[in-house]
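Regression report. Comparing outputs from two consecutive submissions.

Submission 1:
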Amino acid sequence: MRTIVVTGASSGVGLAAAQDLAAQGDQVVVVGRDPGRLSAAMAAVRAAATGPPPAEFRADFESLDQVRRLADDLLAAYPAIDVLANNAGGMLAAYRKTEDGFEATVASNHLAPFLLTNLLREALRGGRVVNTSSRAHQGARVDPDDFTGDPAKWNGWRSYGAGKAANILFTEEAARRWPDILSVAFHPGVVRTNFGAGPVTRFFYKVAPFLTSAEKAGELLTWLATAPADELRNGAYYVGHKATQPDRRLADPALAARLWDSSATATGL
């Protein structure tokens, strides 16, 4: 039996994966932000479970203090964690600065999972980390020296793409720094969920005919979380079941190392 922590598991890809993993008999730890959606998600995961009862934790990834408390609570409950699925994140409709002074998109999509993974690092020894990225990383610019941004120049899609590019750089650098932990990132597809900011974007992600179902994307996350380690490549970015070359500008170890160091400074590590 594996202990698997899934963040952003209140809906969409994370919830679908949590149900799949619970149905396989794993100890599933569901992390969400909104109490109402988290309660509904827990009911669904409990109904699917064939092993131990799933556990519930709540944290808002725009708050680094809440991420730290989450890490403390997880470590108190689970000294060993087999898989951390960093799935929480999203896109905003307008510029917002967090209580820590960072632009909220980069905070929730990159700094929070970076901090959580580092705090859980010892518990993850011998396990794996699965980071939900996106093809939206293509063409994105990552600035390791600026996690605040300029409100006057802010764009939701650019910020989201930069966050997803940071997920890939984090995955690559984790593979170099932590060879005892298998780290992968993946593109879940353009998923039919409540993703997006604003009514037009949300409408698109609900009705466009070519979208991937949350269930199918959840199956991919489940595969990455549970496939034999020798079937996966450490530090790789997956599209479907295939390790795929991300944007060529991300094949830069110096950029990945700079992002890691600046993220460690920003999060107080």
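Submission 2:
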Amino acid sequence: MVFRGILLALVAGVSGCANGGVAGAPPALAVAPERLPGDGASGAAAMRVANAPQLPKAARQALDLALDHYLRGRPGRTAVSVHDRTTGVQYAFHGEQSFMLASVAKVDILLALLLRAQREHRQLDAHQRALADRMIRFSDNECAHDLYVAIGRQAGLTRTLHRLGVRDTYPGAGRFWGSTRSNPSDQVKVLGVLTDPDGPVSAANRRYALGLMSSVTPDQAWGVSAAGGKVALKNGWLPAEAHGGLWTINSVGRLLVADHDLLIAVLSERSPDMPTGITTVERVAGLAVKGFTGARAPVTALGR
């Protein structure tokens, strides 16, 4: 069964990185240096998302009503944020509420890793590419920890995010990068920085990151992908001790659907089990995307 496979993948996700990367993963190429905050470039990508106009009032009210109606009957709490890069508009439903990111924090770590390499005028080395491959495509926690150390842990990730204008995300201490707290609107800003052609991430590194997120192992390809289109995503899932073992289930990604280029983050907590949380996140993603496009398309990997 699919959920049995997902749970097996969860166990596999804490394995080490001795085997390195997986054949066929996209390489990290030579890059131009990251533009510095002084020229206004580093934070501009996040600002474009933060300052985007809202979804028109009628559509916003209809989507608010649909989400409120659905979530009223679901356990826990859920929030979503969407930015449409095609039209420039955005939408958030409880988008400033804070959640534990779990493995969605790996996207933030990847962004900081790529920008660090750019500041040092170099490519990711083979070992870093192997770690990044397993961190994103297989959600390997040991690989994520190694890269968290490489970017300067809590202080390093905080500095990077603040420089980029992502200021409501609080990285976890020590090995607890998965306890990073953030909100959907901040994670859409992270996706905006990672994918913006005019942002600080080089074209080669944008392709690299989206290549990893477009080729996650099938057992982990649930979440925002349920909304259809071409998908690049990263999910997070965790039975949270702080919530008595109830589940945190998160999904973020970029969708190309019905002629729209959407950045979307759905964060949730306190589901009684993993399948229930996945169902909630997928339904919320579908409703949000339909609010922008009025349609649902078949799912394919982004760029394939």
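Expected: both submissions complete independently.
Actual: both completed, but the second showed a warning that disappeared on reload.
Relevant detail on submission 2: Residues 1-40 have pLDDT under 50 and may be disordered.
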